[in-house]
Every structure is written in structure tokens, then in C-alpha cells.
TrEMBL record:
Predominant cellular place of this UniProt entry's protein: cytoplasm
EC number(s) from the headed UniProt entry: 2.3.1.286
Name by which UniProt lists this protein: NAD-dependent protein deacylase
Function: NAD-dependent lysine deacetylase and desuccinylase that specifically removes acetyl and succinyl groups on target proteins. Modulates the activities of several proteins which are inactive in their acylated form.
Protein source organism: Zobellia galactanivorans (strain DSM 12802 / CCUG 47099 / CIP 106680 / NCIMB 13871 / Dsij)
GO terms of molecular function: histone deacetylase activity, NAD-dependent; NAD+ binding; protein-malonyllysine demalonylase activity; protein-succinyllysine desuccinylase activity
Amino acid sequence: MKKKITILTGAGMSAESGINTFRDAGGLWEGHDVMEVASPEGFAKNPELVLNFYNQRRRQLQQVKPNLAHKALIELEKLFDVTIVTQNVDDLHERAGSSNIIHLHGELLKVRSTGNENRVLDWTKDLNLGDRCEQGHQLRPHIVWFGEAVPLLEQAAIATQNADILIIIGTSMQVYPAASLIDYAQGHVPIYFVDPRPSVSENHYNHLTVIAKTAVEGVPDLVRDLIESI
């Protein structure tokens, strides 16, 4: 039976593809306070601003490509049972070829009905006021905004709990509830933390290895080492 690897990825995973990270933007996204463009209150106050913000991000996404770190993770699937839990709303893991991905914070290339959260549609073009589902409700980005529940958190926690190896890439592990996932890992499980500015040290967790590199610098070597260790 293949060993299970669970991989938690954050904004640093996609930064080297050209997608701005919240951390590097001084608390601003495209010049906007995060609560203006990533909260139910912001959407209620100025839906046009919010829709335009995500339209810009959706257009940008279609101009970038998976990087070497995304591509390296595909190699693990040949020898391990891999689950990727990502905080990213882009589709770069999918485009690189990874097959089992849990999007904790939603997906930029999907929208959902404001009247029925289970009505989710694929969406690659701009989303505008007046774009409605078949029941007449305005469509909104399929994004988990601040203050909203994270529907797939339990599924992500189970994947982390069942992991034989845990890899964390490009995330500060400071934003909850996603940051709590590391605590679901069993005590004997080796944890690899790849981030140029790691927020934890090897004193924090048993069997933790910190790789203070960017995703593109650190992930391909880690993947090679894990494959060679079999």
C-alpha cells in the first residue's frame, strides 16, 4: 500500500508563477483593504468593486503558468497516495497535473448563486452585476471570504490526520482555521516546511524539518529526496 502524503500549500506556492501574495502586498490586495474585497460585508457594501477585483484576478490567472514546484509534486503521485490541501484559489495545481486537490478557500474559476450556495458553476470570463443563476439570484465568486465557514475544513483535517508524511509549502501558517491543520498530524509523522520565512522552528514540532527556501528552490529537491528514500 502506498504511503499517504498530505501537502498543505499557500500563496508562496504560486508566487513564483507571478501571482501576488497577500503577505507581500502589505496587507493590501491590488490596493484594496482585504475586508473591502474579501468579506460578505464588503460585497454587500460595494458588489461592483468586489466583482471587478476578482475579474482582474481571474484575467491574471489565465496569463500565468504552473511553476517547477507545482510540476514536481506530480512526481510524488507515481509512488505515494497524495492529497493536496491548498489555500490558493488558483487552478495551477490542476494545470500542473495533480489529481487530488482540496480547495479550502474556494476556486477563482467558479462562481455560485447568492441564493443557493450549493449551485456552483464553472466560470472563466468576467462576472458582472446582473449575472444570475437560473433561479434569478446574483452570482458571486466561489471564494471563502473572511467571516465565512470553511466547508472543506473537516475533509482537510481528515487528510492531515491520515498522512504518513506532511509537507507544508509557501504558507505563513498564521491564518486560521487553515493554520490549525498542522495540529492534526500524528506525533510520529515527519513534517517538511518549505518557506523562505518559516513561522515555525524545528523546536515547535517533533520530526519537523524546515527548508528555508522558496517553493521553486525547495520543492523539487524535497520530492527527489522522498522518492529516493523509498
